[in-house]
Give the backbone structure.
Amino acid sequence: MSMDDLVLARALHVLAIVHWIGGVGFVTLVVLPYALSRASAAEGLAFFDAVERRFASQVRLSIPIAGAAGLWLTYKMDVWERFRDLHFWWMGAMLGLWLVFMILVFVVEPLIKDSFDELAARDPSAALHRLSRLHRILLAIAALTILGAVAGAQGLVF
């Protein structure tokens, strides 16, 4: 087992996660509050859409890269048993978080786009509030997962 491929995989894994979850944090903590503060909910939704559209095209790369690198690390290090060990709960949490985002970005978003666009046209304020609530929940789960993964990888047992 070459250490070079493990170092590269870990670096790509972390870089992809920083981009992906950092972007979720920026959208959740900066973009959505700004959009919600606009005088018109329609103006706020248009702002959110413009920013999110640019980020969405990027995150469609960073999420699969994070997953591929994580899979490579798990395979090369042969640490599959960690998914069954409660001391390594964060391994399952990372996989679960990745699966949620993969499904949301690649399956759910395309499927509900038309119905969300209808809601946004009918009630932009309700659409913005739903987006904000969903992003806050996802960011909280991601933050707990990252905290657990970094602490757990350094030997801290919860």
